[in-house]
């Protein structure tokens, strides 16, 4: 294993992570809701729409973040370097899988682990392992 | 209204944290997932930082029946570790590994008004809807099971 020292950014990671934790922790303490983004989104998708107002408000804040950051420095658009077909397939798998598994990186990885939930630990290990295996196959076997 | 303004601010903080941490950059995420290549461990610090701050809040919330603003606190979710949890999470991981994008960054990147990010987000919503509709398809396909479940 070789460490990518050129891109390693532990302090920005810790600081950004702390902000994510501040948001998720405040959401459960103030609003009483879990800030798992796939869950927040899914609650707005038919046929099971429920308590839409806070979901929309949270997502609008997340959506507005690039504009607010842009006041200081315009965020670069994401670089995918995969075709539109793969992007669409990946999006579909992310949406479908995160709902079937009842959570994503924020729901299980941040909120669930902060709750010391074994179920979320199992989910986090599963998606980390499958994501690492996927990158291994794409970059080192078929790449 | 105050509650929605606060919730908007919480979403904004979440988004700024995602950006600062590098989670909104698919190549940064893939650098973390590529343990066999040049590995960038930064995202482990993101999760560590997030849990460090969120853990006390969730502990406190677990002891309360209502939130500090007086709203009901979501009950703890199921504790079951079942096939749906593992299969679903693994499927999610494949999509995350292919693209480097998970749901939070997908919403953030949509705010950049980028074409590819919009395609990803639309597909993500389709995936959510598909999962929601799946039980209906299954119920339609196997009426015997419907009776068994008493639904």
From TrEMBL, chain A:
The chain crosses the membrane at residues 20-44, 56-76, 82-100, 121-142. GO terms for cellular component: plasma membrane. It is found in: Cell inner membrane. The keyword Membrane applies. It holds the Pfam family Sulf_transp. Keywords: Cell inner membrane, Cell membrane, Membrane, Transmembrane, Transmembrane helix, Transport. Coiled coil: none annotated. It is a multi-pass membrane protein. It comes from the Bacteria. Belongs to the TsuA/YedE (TC 9.B.102) family. This is YeeE/YedE family protein.
UniProtKB/TrEMBL annotation, chain B:
InterPro entries: DUF6691. The chain crosses the membrane at residues 42-62, 83-108, 120-141. Keywords: Membrane, Transmembrane, Transmembrane helix. PROSITE patterns: PROKAR_LIPOPROTEIN. It comes from the Bacteria. This is YeeE/YedE family protein. The keyword Membrane applies.
